[in-house]
Amino acid sequence: MLTSKIGNYRWLIVVLLFFATTINYLDRQIIGLLKPILEKEFSWTETDFAHIVMAFTAAYAIGLVTFGWIIDKIGTKLGYCITIVVWSIAGMAHALARSAFGFGLARVGLGLGEAGNFPAAMKTVAEWFPKKERALATGLFNAGTSIGVVVALLLVPLILNYYGWQEVFWITGALGFVWLIFWLIFYDIPSKQKRLSPDERAFITSGQNVEADKRNAVTAVKWQKLFLFPETWAMITGKGLIDPIYWFFLFWLPSFFSSTFSLDLKRPSLQLMVIYAATTIGSIGGGYLSSVLIKRGWPVLKARKTVLIVFAFLEVSIILAQFAKEAWIAVGLISLAVAAHQAWATNVFTMASDMFPTEAVSSVVGIAGMAGAIGGILFPILIGSLLDSYKAAGNLAGGYHVIFTLCGFTYLIAWTIIHLLTRKSEKVEIFELK
């Protein structure tokens, strides 16, 4: 429970994570919003765009496992600095591209850099929060994924009204360097943070299994050995099957509404704002719900999995979007689906810090994120070929119908696998691998 006596500095850390995640998703969403403009200027096909998305996700996969390992080695403060500098420079480099290949190269740099955000953020949450608050903290910073998209929906048309698409990349890419100033001023790990009160430091460490983490710290974590644990494969499943679906929502929804409901993407889109704002509700609500269950005495893993199955069933609603004849009906159904996704993502992320010691959290998140990115490489191939095929037949909407149906059932399949892999609720003991 928050009180003035304990102090609230840890929530300031969440604010920093929130804005980093907001900038992260702002930068990656730009290409989706500019797609109708860029495909006309450079004569892209749907398959060309799919290849550009694949370049990002391939680099993202490599970056996740690389930065996950690096951040566990060098720590969150320096690790976050490196990742945001890399992705900000790459974001601005898009303005120099003049072909699909050039945009693909810029996306590679962006993917490598942006991959470090979630491993660093989850490790930060594990360092700064007791278990009973971690899901809520994760939900709050993870809300930046949707706010970043909403900001993009507002900012891109505004910049386009006065400048060109190149300036969109220059301006948005520079925001990461502004965030970096505040990170360097306000962040350090709890044991070194002088602004943290003794009471709040004690509150943080009281719910973190400090003794178990100290035993695990004796042995340096070798991320290859993490594949020996079924809990790691549960994380891989939770991200590998589901992340590609959210990336579909992220990169193709603007194009879907443009082609299906004649939405003008050169103007701020209220429909898309509502959809992406709904993910904020799901992110925070999903984290809050599992935190409430834990505070009421539920076992941690049982609480997480209960929330996951609830939102997996809600996700089936996306199948109904194919029957929507009005834009706002589609908005309502897709809003529910993306909100359910973010609630799912929040709890899957938090499970890493529930099941693994702090020293391994970033590596596990990186491995799981890599699995999601690999899925993100393969899924656009299916999307691009389906949409081009249906477009050639004069029925582009039919391609989206098939994709929505696949998305609707995948969450229930993923939950079943996760449940089977995590029937034991004990915390993983890395030191046993010595």
Number of domains: 1
Instruction: Enter the CATH topology name.
Output: Growth Hormone, Chain: A
Strand content: under 5%
Radius of gyration: 21 Å
Q: Percent helix among the residues?
A: over 70%
Low-pLDDT parts are 211-220
CATH architecture: Up-down Bundle
CATH class division: Mainly Alpha
What is the 3D form?
globular
Overall pLDDT level: 84
Total number of beta strands: 0
Count of helical segments? 17
N-to-C series of helices and strands? HHHHHHHHHHHHHHHHH
- Output the CATH homologous superfamily: MFS general substrate transporter like domains
What can you tell me about this protein's structure?
Residues 211-220 have low confidence and may be disordered. The longest helix is centred in the last third of the chain and has 35 residues, at 358-392. This protein has a single domain, classed as MFS general substrate transporter like domains (Growth Hormone, Chain: A, Up-down Bundle), CATH 1.20.1250. Helix 1 (9-42) runs antiparallel to helix 8 (165-186) and helix 5 runs antiparallel to helix 6. It is globular, with a radius of gyration of 21 Å. The chain is mainly alpha-helical and 434 residues long. The chain starts with 8 loop residues before the first helix and ends in a 13-residue tail after the last helix. It has 17 helices and no strands.
What descriptors fit this protein?
Growth Hormone, Chain: A; 17 helices; mainly alpha; 434 residues
What is shown here, in short?
This protein is an all-alpha fold. Helix content is 78%, strand content 0%.
